[in-house]
Amino acid sequence: MGWTLPAVFSFDEGVLPATSKRNMTRMFMADKPHRYGSKLFMVCDAKTAYCHRFEVYVGKRESTNGAATAVDYKAGAAAVVRNLKVVLGQSRQRWHCVVIDRYYSSVLLAVELLSLRAWAQQGSQSYKEGAPSERTSWYILLLGSVTIPTMISCIWWDRKPVHYLCTGSVMAASTIERKLKRVGAVRVPCPSAVNDYQNWMSGVDVHDQLRLQSYLLQMSTRFTKYYKSLFLGFLDMVMVNAYLTHKEGANIKGTFAMKRS
Fold it and tell me: Where is the PiggyBac transposable element-derived protein domain (predicted)?
């Protein structure tokens, strides 16, 4: 008995720590717990952080003469579509909602995902042009598409303007908690897409935290051959998935789940 793809899942980058210079997949990632490692494209459950699929990024595709192409067709939106075609083809659900990081977001990707019967919840790239220099009030700006009625773009002012691109999202009024200096926690207005994005986007990050912050086999020992260390990294992913399966099974049965220690 295995896991089935849920109705809501997240797509983001993960990392396998790697310090050996002989590892051809090693690259620098400034926003990860381990800045040097192998990049992984991961599809994880938005609620439980269970990893349904991962793909190791091995670099740009080379042409026939050995030169790297100008456009990287193995990363970005192409990586999202390539991985989702595999997981969605094995799913039992008719429609899904995929939450994507802002580095992959684009209008073309949202349209392509609609053809795969998947709604997109994307955090778009922020553009400073035309935005005020300081926040004066919380505001929401909604923009709809005439060609695709389900596509909506919204701008929500937090500390900086935050852009969202959604298809099939219910843009109802909601609130979110923010902490202000000398004031404390306050509830500020926001569209419901902001709550959905923050609640569902952390699937890959939680899986990385469970794998990298404690009980890590890969960093517990060193090998002369770098691929042995990568094997332990894959084994760590299997162990995290096994623990999440045990934890979810305990919740279903109404029993207490064992700790990882």
Answer: 8-243
